[in-house]
Amino acid sequence: MTAATAGTPNKAALGPLLTMFAMLCFAGMDATSKFLVADYAVGQMMWIRCIILFLFAWFIVRRIGVRAALKTPRPGVQITRSLILLVESALFVFAFRYLPLADTHALASTSPLIVIALGVIFLNERAGAARWLAVVAGFTGVLLIIRPGFRDFDWPLLLPVVGAVLWATYQILTRLAARHDSADTSLIWSALIALIATTFVAPIDWRWPTAGAWVLIVGVAMIGSVANYALIKALDYAEAGAVQPYSYTLLVWATLLGFVVFGDFPDLWTIVGAAVIVASSAYTWYHDRMTASAARP
């Protein structure tokens, strides 16, 4: 699908649903990465992930061929967004070595606010009062969870903050690319550029994974591939600002996985904050669907 058909009422609802699914996949990927980064280098893990991502992308575009899928009128946009995604992903994996899973995602949850601001500035997207209200409510839920002032400042806290800026920039560039390129084109560019870039850093501090680690690394790569494609499709169907409140569900998924995998039971404030985030996402979805229905002839 191209930008010519994106945003129609019957397709716009898929944007939020695909975004929430992508966030679930990302949370699962990050929880597994937190286990792995204690024993393996970030560059090594990213290279293996990029191999799987490229194979996944090739499978998706095989019907038209890689060469045809790579055709784009704006290769600079595709290269830039692909490199930004790679650096952002590596930053978060590195952050998991120092920070708890939920704390990392809580700090990174500022990205929807950044996306809406960048979308208005660079994409001329509209940001009505309902979207701003939902995003602010979602951010309030984040504040309820992290409760500012709970710890002294430490340099690793900058990693997810910088990652949030890069993540927001990537989504804006993906939406910009969707005006000219299909989701398949954006996917194959992301996979190819990431694979080329990580090939140069993979040998640094290489440690051969155990059989169990291979399973986890490959599993993480496959989940990440599906998540990236789902998000690309989400931004193909809907404006970047429209899907941002649903990105907060990543924090909800991370909290649940933190309890299931790491045994971290969320406290009352976390539960209240998560409820606010989910409510803001549900409200925005309902509002957008009602708006689309009203605009339908």
What is the overall shape? globular
Give a count of the beta strands, DSSP E runs of length 2 or more. 0
Integer count of domains: 1
Poorly predicted runs: 1-7
Strand content: under 5%
The helix/strand order is HHHHHHHHHHHHHH
Distance between the termini: 23 Å
- Mind telling me the C-alpha Rg? 19 Å
Helix percentage range: over 70%
State mean pLDDT (0 to 100 scale): 83
Describe the structure using short key phrases.
mainly alpha; 297 residues; single chain; globular
Describe the structure.
It is a single chain. The protein has 297 residues and is an all-alpha fold. It has one domain (9-295). Helix content is 75%, strand content 0%. It is built from 14 helices and no strands. The chain has helices at 9-12, 14-36, 42-61, 66-69, 75-95, 101-108, 111-122, 129-146, 158-177, 183-199, 211-237, 240-247, 249-262, 268-295. Helix 7 packs antiparallel against helix 12 (240-247). The two termini are 23 Å apart. Keywords: Membrane, Transmembrane, Transmembrane helix. The chain crosses the membrane at residues 12-29, 41-61, 82-99, 105-123, 130-149, 155-173, 185-204, 210-231, 243-262, 268-286. This is EamA domain-containing protein. It comes from Reyranella soli. InterPro entries: EamA_dom, EmrE-like.
